[in-house]
Amino acid sequence: MTENGNVFSLGDKHPQIADDVFIAPGAQVMGDVTIGKGSSIWFNCVLRGDVNTIEVGEGTNIQDGTVVHVSRRTHPTVIGSNVLIGHMAMVHGCILKDWSFVGLGSIVMDGCVVEEDGMLAAGAMLTPGKVIGKGELWGGRPAKLMRTLTEEQITSNRTASPHYAQLAQVYRSELKVD
Fold first, then answer.
1. Which regions of the chain are under pLDDT 70?
2. Is residue 168 part of a domain?
3. pTM of whole model > 0.85?
4. The domain containing residue 95 runs over which residues?
5. What pLDDT, on a 0 to 100 scale, did the predictor assign at position 177?
6. How many structural domains compose the chain?
7. Residue 176 main-chain phi, psi, to 5 deg
8. Any alpha helices (H) in the chain, and if so which ranges?
9. pLDDT given at position 178
10. Is the peptide bond before 142 cis (omega within 30 degrees of 0)?
11. Pairwise CA distance, residues 103 & 89, whole Å
């Protein structure tokens, strides 16, 4: 679902958005952005693919107030499938692999990679070029390895993106302008 006025072409760069994506009112998607099926872009997010590309996989959830941008010529932003990005995050010129988790208010900078089931804690700042390994939890400013997540924690984290995919479909069908 897209409300009028929140998806924009920029010159010859046109967003490619699957039919069942939820883009909340107030969110802005512009330029060279691809969003896969079942993903959701919540209120007041900005995805700005102006000087490089942004790719968002399937079933990914980008929560309220998050900014996703790129670096000119050097770093696109690639967000895999079933990724959870918490409210007010800043994601810039990086790679977030499938099932990764970026906490509330955190920052992921140019050239960073968050591997599958990797997690950046709320409020953390992942400085340029850092890699969060599979199943690792990093936190702090600057972020450092805190520990390895347990299988139970990974399983719990993996329940979040399907939950938001279901909630997004409720919003697609029931959200109305009063």
1. 1-5
2. yes
3. yes
4. 7-174
5. 81
6. 1
7. -130, 150
8. 151-158, 160-174
9. 82
10. yes
11. 7
